[in-house]
Structures are given as structure tokens and as C-alpha cells.
Amino acid sequence: MRKIIVIQALLFLCTSAFCQEVVSTGSTTASTGSTTASTGSTTASTSSTGTESSDTAEQLSFTEEPMEEVAPDDAFIDLLKTAVIPEIHPLDTIEETPPSHIAISFVSDEALAKPQVEAFRKMYLSPKWSALLRTYLESAMEYRLYVRKAVQDAKMPEMLEYLPVVESNYKTNAKSSSGAIGMWQFMANSVWPFLTLNDFVDERLDPWKSTEAALKKLTDNYNFFNDWLLAIGAYNCGVGAMNRAIKRAGGVKDFWYLAEGGFLSKQTAEYVPKLIAIADLAINSQYYGIDIPSHDEEFELLENEKNGNFDYITVKKAYSINQLAQEMRLDSATLKRLNPSYTMGMTHPSKASEIRLPLGMKQSAQDALANMTPVEFPIKYTVVAGDSLWSISRKYKTTVSAICELNGIKENAILKIGKILYIPSK
Hints:
By secondary structure, the chain is mostly helical. It has 20 helices and four strands. It folds into four domains: 2-82, no CATH class; 109-300, Lysozyme; 310-370, Membrane-bound Lytic Murein Transglycosylase D, Chain A (Roll); 379-423, LysM domain (Membrane-bound Lytic Murein Transglycosylase D, Chain A, Roll), CATH 3.10.350.10. The chain starts with a helix and ends with a strand.
């Protein structure tokens, strides 16, 4: 109510001041005329002033009747003196709220603040390593999104999306000096019962199947230790090694105690902190000010191979992946990329094999297979001194190109003594 009175007062003052200016002009005319009458001043002077006043009135033309001077209202002026006039401020500028740190499931604030974690975080915040981290994650986006979905579906720790960075920098064909292969770095002696490995198939190279296998193995580890950090550490060193470390530590099942107490190898002691640091930076990239896209929109719109939605066809004989692609009028590189586990370039000669296809191409593959002749069970040949691809092809009445395609080698390849070659029987 008080603000309304003040506003009315301000409007009144503005109007009053303006009107007083007009009245003052009229008053001057009247005063001049009065003075002339009382002192006997010349009529010309009065007429001149009257004329000017008349002209001014005509120009203003607010009213044809003379205006009376308004006496100031002392009570109203006193009211204005005591009134509180609201302060006028410029519009407030909207300040952006800085990004907040997002908590990581199964990782405590204490763990995030560990010196081991901070060391890796600091390393990956450097221009060189943050650029590499972005490259690793972006180059494998289709596999990374599949891993994210698989982790979420299994209700496992979200940081496992970034474990392939620690293992292989998300490279599907990575091979370590110790013989571990693939995005999840399975050793040959650790694939069973998760993956198939034989002369024709190595599922460690399949990013989709190896992801399923890795998550199953991690789940088994968790069920054994009932602790995710120990389960992840055991993925690196093995359940047996982790269990022995716990026994040496007097039965303490705490990863940080084992790592800081020297009960774990240096590699395993750094394995978990490195994962936590990478996951923290990726999940909180805005908080840390680094450019690592989360691809949330792409994740919401998962399509085709990005979330593992494919068509499949099962065969029970050896079929060339390259020939199948040609019959389907499909880029052979695409079909090979979807089926990287067939190391010989063909399905298994005697066991049921599943061929992964782009979504919507199952019928096309069935029609193509109907026009193809399967490769007969190949002969297993061991290279001896003096052998060449040409001499071997002549011996078995086949072609050099057929041998090369079956074995995934180039026609100018140098054969090593003892190398196993598979020879098409026809």
C-alpha cells in the first residue's frame, strides 16, 4: 500500500511541476498587467506582454481558460519526506552454476582422494594424456556404448565401462607381451568356460562376446570376495593370487590395505587406482574441464551394432566370410569386422557357427549361402624346410590364393618352419 502512495505522489509531483511552469507563464502575464494598472506603466508594455502570453497559451493550448496557481500542500510534502522510496537496481545477471562432482558408485570419497588415484588423475589431466584418453574412448564408441548398456543391465559398477581402457585402450585386436588378447585381454588359459578358442575360432577378438565373458568373470569374482575393488583387482592378477594376498595380510579383505601394505604386485596395486581415476575423469569431465563426450544422446538412441542388435545365421560347415560378403553384395570389411573371431576367415568346418550380420540382412545371407559351396574340411599341414606357398598349392591341387584366404596370410608371406597351414581339400 505504501508503494502505491509513493508512486501516486511521484506522478502528482511530475504533473504539478509541469502545470506550475504553465501557470507561471500565465501569472507573469497577469502580474505584468496588474503592475501596469497600478503604476500607470504604458499600455504598450502591457499589450506586448499580453501578446506574448497569448501566443504562448495558443502554442500550448492546454485550456482556453486561465489556470489558477496551485498552492503547495504542506501536509502532502511532509508525507513524501517520510515515505520510503524503493531502490532501483539493474537486472540481476544470471550466473552459471559450476558443474558439481558426480559420485561414482562403489567408490567412496576417501578412495577418490587416495594419492594413488590422484597421481593417475593428474597424469590424465595433462594435455597429452587427456587427448589420448579422449582418442581411446572416441575410437571405440560403438563398443563402449555396448559395454555401458551391458554393465547397466547387469547392475554392475558404472566404472567398468572404462576397464577396457586400462586393459587394452579399447583396442579389439590388442595383444600383450604375455599373450593376453582382445579388448578385455583374456589369456588362453582363462577363456574357459567363458569363450571359445580353437584352430578356427578365437572369441577373445570378438568385442561383444568378450564383453559378456568379462562381465561374467567379474561377477564370479565379486561373488567370491563380496567386494568390487577386490573383484576388479582379481581380474588383473587372478582369484588365486588375490586370495593368497588376503591370507598373507591376515585375512583382511580390503584392497587399499593390501595395496598399501605391499601384499599385491605393483601392477595390481596400480590397476584399480588407474581405473578409478579414468572413470572419475570421464564421468566428471565437465567438472574437471576436459573434453570427453559422454554420448548420452547416442546411448539413448542405440542403433544396430552400437547396442548389439544384429541379425544372426547359424551354419554347420566351413563358409568363407569374404565370399559370403561378396554374394550378399556387402563390403567384406564390414562382415569381417562383425565376425572377428573367425581367425581363418571361415566358420568352423564341423561345429555350429553363428555369423553376425547387419540388422535386416538375414534373408540376404540365407539366399547367398544357398548359392555357395562350403569349404571341405581342410587338411592340416606343417611347413618344412624348402616349402613355399606355390609348392604346397601344387602338391594339394589348389591355389595359392585359396591357401592364403583360408589362413589369413598374404601371397608374398614368408613361411616359417613348423608353421601350421590349413589346405582346402578342393
